[in-house]
Structure formats: C-alpha cells, structure tokens
Amino acid sequence: MAIQRTFSIIKPDATERNLTGAVNAVIEKAGLRIIGQRRIKMTREQAERFYDVHKERPFFGELVDFMTSGPVVVQVLEGENAVKAYRDVMGATNPTEAADGTIRKLFAKSIGENSVHGSDSEENAAIEIAQFFSLADIVG
Ligand code: RTP
Ligand code: MG
User: Fold this and answer.
1) Please, which domain of life does this record's source organism belong to (predicted)?
2) What number is the ipTM of this complex?
3) What does pTM read for this prediction?
4) How far is the CA of 93 from the centre of ligand 2 (A)?
5) Which residue, 22, 40, 67, 111, has most beta carbons within 10 Å?
C-alpha cells in the first residue's frame, strides 16, 4: 500500500478538555505523521459545507451546533494506508462500540461528541484537505 494522506479534526469536546496532545500521541503512536495542523473556530457555513452529505439526517442541526461550539484542530495526516489506518485508530462512531485503545474508546463522550473526525475515502480526504489547507501549510 502506498503512502496516503487523510484529513482529521480534533472536535470541540476534546479541545475543551485539553486533549489535543493526548489525541496526537495516539495518532503518532499509530505511525501517522501530522504534516499539517491548525486550530480554528469553524463558522456555521464551514460546518454546514463540511457535513453537507448529512444535511437530511435528523442530527444535522445538532452536529453543526456542536462543531461550531468551540475550537477544533484541523489536521493532515500522512502514512501507509492513512485513510483506513486513521479510521482504525479512531474507533467506531459510537464510543460504546469502539475497540479498546482507540481514540473514541479512550476519550469520546457520546455518539455525537466523539472527539475526532477522519475522512472515509481517499477521494473525500483530498476534498476535505482542500477545504481547510493551502498547499503551503502542508509540509510532508
Ligand atoms: P466522522 O465523519 O466525524 O469522522 O465520523 P463517522 O464517519 O464515524 O460518522 P458519520 O456517520 O460520518 O457521522 C458524522 C458525525 O455526526 C455525528 N453523529 N451524531 N446523534 C447521532 O446519532 C449521530 N450520528 C452521527 C458524529 O459526531 C459523527 O462523527
Ligand atoms: Mg463520516
């Protein structure tokens, strides 16, 4: 498998509890390299665009409220098979179903406030990275 990039967000429930470093430690221990990182406060427009695929879901309003409720850390991760590797280390969306040692098992509060986002395909990773990073801010 080739070296790949994926897009990550450390969500407001994690930044609020000062867990950015703890999440990054799990990411780096999994062999993923953080090659871009920025702390931002998402606007409603940014969050609505980012989660456009979920706009018909019942939790959409709650999700946008949550993602704009505090700072997030947006990241570009690089490594072997990075999209799947990061999904594996994140764990299941619902922390009660997440495997031991995963970020969501360790830190997530609930299915909504679940500490991290990771792209679900290489194609979406490229789209999501382009939404938040310019090329000059990614140093591989
Ligand atoms: P993500 O996109 O954040 O990496 O998470 P995911 O693929 O595991 O989950 P997805 O189905 O794409 O859902 C996106 C985010 O929406 C929130 N959610 N809330 N209340 C609910 O039932 C519910 N379901 C999903 C979570 O924050 C989830 O990560
Ligand atoms: Mg998703």
Assistant:
1) Bacteria
2) 0.93
3) 0.97
4) 8
5) 67
